[in-house]
Amino acid sequence: MPAQNAEILFHGGRVFCAATGIDGVGGVLVRGDRIVASGADASAAASASCEVRDFPNALLLPGLVDLHAHPAREGSKYGVDPDAEFLPRGVTTVMSQGDAGANNWDRFRDTTAEACRTRVRMAINLAASGETSRVGCFEDLDDADVDACVRTIESGGELIWGIAVNASRFCCGESDPREVFRRGLEAAERTERPLLYGMRQSDDWSFEEQMALLRPGDVVTYCFRPEPEGLVAGGRVPDVFRQARDRGIVFDLGHGWTSFDYPTAEAAIRDGFPPDTISTDSYAKHLGAEPPHSLARTMSKVLAAGMEERAVLTAVTDRPARALGLAGEIGTLAPGACADLTLLEWKDDVGPLVDTRENVRPGGGWEAVCTVRAGDVIR
Fold first, then answer.
1. Residue 27 bridge partners (DSSP)
2. Less packed terminus of the chain by CB within 10 Å, N or C?
3. Angle CA(252)–CA(293)–CA(80) in degrees, nearest 5?
4. Beta carbons within 10 angstroms of residue 292's beta carbon
């Protein structure tokens, strides 16, 4: 942790914060682990002994928030070390999609959630074993243990944001996805927690029925899969998804290894339905990828797909912070907020921007050049 009275003034070529409306030349003054001032006049609040760090070519943002990924140092077949794979690449807060369940939550808490410098939150797996099996986590329906899930959430406090329920064919196997969902919803209602939900294909279970079961604050992820799994049908976004968004359902990107398709993303954005939040679904299979699979690179891909730049920046800062219930503490440069900062530079030579089906789009991309977590300069 930084010294309580240590001051650092970070200058960027552009400072952006959707939560406060800042967008222009300026800086952010940090004292200890808190933001003291931000914007064009931040330097006026600095003391004579303040350290100054200049990044004239960088975009200075609140620390990036990855709403769907797999931070886990052990115990998950998908897990990666968040301090090695997320924090140096600009992500200061990341949520685990079901890496642990009731049976291995304690170990996840001790080795990852409470041990990492990265802020880690959990969408706990309804399956008590978490992501430890070689097959889908709900193939054994007995593992979808509502009582065990509820007890774990009640003991986990603020570290457990909600419940991960993936109704896909892979995760459910021969189990009935409707029953899996019913159990997840029961646990969510008993604990007053939201769901992080992966949809079932529409030819197995209509999207109308699935959306009708979701509640305000629930998050639908993998939204840019191609038909029949994603949000686009015949080049348009059906009204059922617009109605769900109007009711307060959040739609998350969830890039992953198979879940970002340029034609789908471009059609949805063109039809006025960009994602609310942008996430990587980064996991072990991405380790060693060149170029690295990062949130900054995923942002660049969505920008190339036609999403407006301010909306992209909001979808990795203010919007996921609100979804996590952490608005005011993260995702903002407001005075008093935690001093989580990310500085990105635009690079023209980042390599091709490729979706999960080998479609390529031209353009450069963002790369993190500095991350600050609770006042500590990571890189």
1. 11, 39
2. N
3. 85
4. 15
